Amino acid sequence: MSGKKLLVYLAVLVLVVGGYLFSEYYQSRQTAQEKASKQVFQLKTADLQKIILKSDKGEIHLEKETAPPPEESSAPAPAPPGATPEVRWRLSNPIAAATDELTMTSLLTALADLKVERRLEAVSADRLKEFGLDKPIFSLEFTAAGASHQLRFGHKVPGSQLIYAQADDDPRILVLRQSDKETLDRTLTALRAKNIFTLKPAEVTELRLVRGQEKLVLQKTGPGVWSPAAPLQVKLREDRLNTLLGQLTIARAVEFVAEKTEDLKKYGLAPSPTLRLTLRRDGREETLLIGGQQGDRYYAQVAGKAPIFLIDKSLVEKLPASSDALEDRRLWTGPEGDVQKITWGPPERQTVAVRDKDGWTIQTGDQETVQQSAMKMNLAFWRLKELEFSRFLKNSADLEKITPVFTIQLLGAENIPLFRLAVFNGEKDPIQVMFTVGDKTQAATVSSQALTEVQELLNRLATPDKAGGNP
Fold first, then answer.
1. Could you give phi then psi for residue 294, rounded to 5 degrees?
2. Are strands 206-211 and 214-222 parallel, antiparallel or unpaired?
3. pLDDT at 3
4. What pLDDT score does 209 carry?
5. Which member of 192, 292, 352, 449 has the lowest number of beta carbons within 10 Å of its beta carbon?
6. How many other C-beta atoms can be found within 10 angstroms of the C-beta atom of residue 367?
7. How far is CA 86 from CA 62, 70, 79, 97, 319, in A?
């Protein structure tokens, strides 16, 4: 190829590439301009500094402020270079209170992204009544980047989900989405922070529950270890404690009833509350006082704070009456990864499952072989771990003389016994069993239904599926 042809081809290539890049630039710029033209206000959420919501219910003032350092830190570490100061929004009128973060994020985003569906002609002041803008049903004033703005809402557009509005001093009528107006027009309760506790589940080291003269104290005595305070010596289930703490620490007020009251008796909070729930962490504590019931809700108050609010009765129903509801009554709690072999069934007809690299190989009492996945065997382990005793028995010596009707045994490496369950009087409820963990054997009763579920699951896993798979 000659040099002249090469130059021609290069010139053509440059023109094509240049034309493509220019087209892309022009199109992206045009798209950005079209998007900007639909924006009611040209602003970012970070620019917003103050917002005032006005409706027939009154005014609500919201202000952005820089958050102070955490209470726990008396000498916080210096912020890294270029770090953005933490900011938050607070209510300043008609009450001074923290705001709900999710609700505020929704409001701020809706305001910054507010788009026009249509722009109508400018109208004179004497025609505003036609659009309901002479006396707006809701208006919003805000300050962003030092500039003040206003947005007013009027009537709904007939037969649609749209609404008339005006912004600032622009005489043109805007048509906006009704849903945007609803996102901006929030009630005081919706805007207000409704969380009751500030402690996180992992931070709680003690839970106290007082009902009249009854007192329940649960303490975290080690990593993942909970127990009632002396004199009780009962092991508690960590998973149930964590679930309870998770439910408590995300509990929220449903509705605020009074900002300040001297008549606590009216709400069942005096002379003493019905319930007193306290969460503690290293000397710091937060207490919820629960009073009288109102339908499906209870009156409540955070100790040391004035507002009276309502909580859902489901929160009260989650609170344990005693440590019994949280006691760890599981027969076996070992790691399933340690189990290399399982045997189960009547003594004369045992099924044997052995772990291998592909899952488990099961040899049934009828000498049939079934391959089973590790995932399905783990389901059996999980169900076995949920098997709990109802009460301990004192006649373990008598049971040792009886042949069990069913056994389950877990073995580790080199056939080291990990757990053994022997089932007696299999047709009665509760069922008498003996279980051995390590070198400790105990007699107890278990639920017939729970034990039957374990037995049936194991038997299904050992049943060959004629269609080509296992249940």
1. -130, 95
2. antiparallel
3. 62
4. 96
5. 449
6. 6
7. 17, 11, 10, 18, 35
Average pLDDT score over the chain: 87
- What is the identity of the amino acid at 143? T
Which pTM value belongs to this model?
0.76
Torsion of CA 397, 400, 402, 404, to 10 degrees: 140
Give me the mean pLDDT over the 43-68 stretch: 91
CB 147 within 8 A of CB 197: no
Task: Name beta bridge partners: 222.
Answer: 225
Q: Tokens 């109208």 label which residue?
A: 123
Q: pLDDT class for 216, splitting at 50, 70, 90?
A: very high
Residue 8 has pLDDT above 90, yes or no: no
Task: Quick: pLDDT tens for 293-311.
Answer: 999 999 999 999 999 999 9
- Least confident span in 20-34, 145-159, 216-230: 20-34
Q: Which residues pair with 299 in a beta bridge?
A: 310
Residue 469 has pLDDT above 70, yes or no: no
- At 161-192, the pLDDT tens digits run 999 999 999 999 999 999 999 999 999 999 99
Provide the token pair at 96.
């001074």
Residue 346 pLDDT exceeds 70:
yes
Dihedral (CA of 280, 281, 284, 286) sign: negative
Angle subtended by helix axes 374-385 and 448-461, to nearest 10: 170
The three state secondary structure string of the chain is CCHHHHHHHHHHHHHHHHHHHHHHHHHHHHHHHHHHHHECCCCCHHHEEEEEEEECCEEEEEEEEECCCCCCCCCCCCCCCCCCCCEEEEEEECCCEEECHHHHHHHHHHHHCCECCEEEEECCHHHHHHHCCCCCCEEEEEEECCEEEEEEEEEECCCCCEEEEEECCCCEEEEEEHHHHHHHCCCHHHHECCECCCCCHHHCCEEEEEECCEEEEEEEEECCEEEECCCCCCCECHHHHHHHHHHHHCCECCEEEECCCCCHHHHCCCCCCCEEEEEEECCEEEEEEEEEEECCEEEEEECCCCCEEEEEHHHHHHCCCCHHHHECCECCCCCHHHCCEEEEECCCCCEEEEEECCEEEEECCCCCEEEECHHHHHHHHHHHHCCEEEEECCCHHHHCCCCCCEEEEEECHHHCEEEEEEECCCCCCCEEEEEEECCEEEEEEECHHHHHHHHHHHHHHCCCCCCCCCC
Dihedral angle, C-alpha 439, 440, 441, 445, nearest 10 ° = -140
Give the confidence band of 467 by pLDDT, cuts at 50, 70, 90: very low
Query: Beta-carbon neighbour count of residue 297 at 10 Å?
Result: 20
